[in-house]
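Box S1 | Example of a co-folding query
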Amino acid sequence: MKILVATSNKHKLHEIKHILKGYKVNGQVTRVKENGQTFAANAIKKVKSLKLKPDQIAIADDSGLMVDCLGGRPGVKSARFATPPTAKNLCLKLIRAINLVKGQGARGKKNLARFVCVIAVKFPSGKIKTVKGVCRGGVIHEMCGCRGFGYDQVFVPDGCKKTFAEMAPAAKNRLSHRGRALRKLKKLLKQKQ
Ligand code: IMP
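Box S1 (continued) | Returned holo structure for inosinic acid
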């Protein structure tokens, strides 16, 4: 079975291909307006936009970072939190936003946060299902590491001392929100739909 992924993010596609090895995975750019109120609504909207051939399954991931002291922001708006949305702009704006609510005195303290990933899957029958992965951790006050994308340089998963950007891809995949959701997806793909 071939898997078509609705994404223009080459980093996400790379992570997805790594975990779904054994499947033939290809990316397809979608021009969907991600204006849903939830990760699931956006993921479903993206997956519905793909036209499937009979031997294909479509998947779409919508993900983001929810920071406790920011009331869950940037959340579904993570990709558009800074302009232009480079990793540096996103991370620096996030640190500034946390400093604004917590004050500079909070430097060095753990800013509780979680990455969330919802993957919608559309089967050849037209049936759509979703799976969710969460990775809890904290946002630090400086950017560390040079791998990954988005907020990887400021996010330290629970139980770790390194940011996602300081980890080898396989280590990030073992812990990450996307890795967790993809392993649930793999189980779903083995079931008859
Ligand atoms: P979307 O799913 O295309 O709406 O984009 C989600 C945004 O959340 C990305 O552009 C990143 O800024 C951020 N994000 C999602 N997953 C990750 C991750 O694994 N590492 C770092 N940032 C992420």
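The radius of gyration is 17 Å. Residues 43 and 62 are 5 Å apart (CA to CA).
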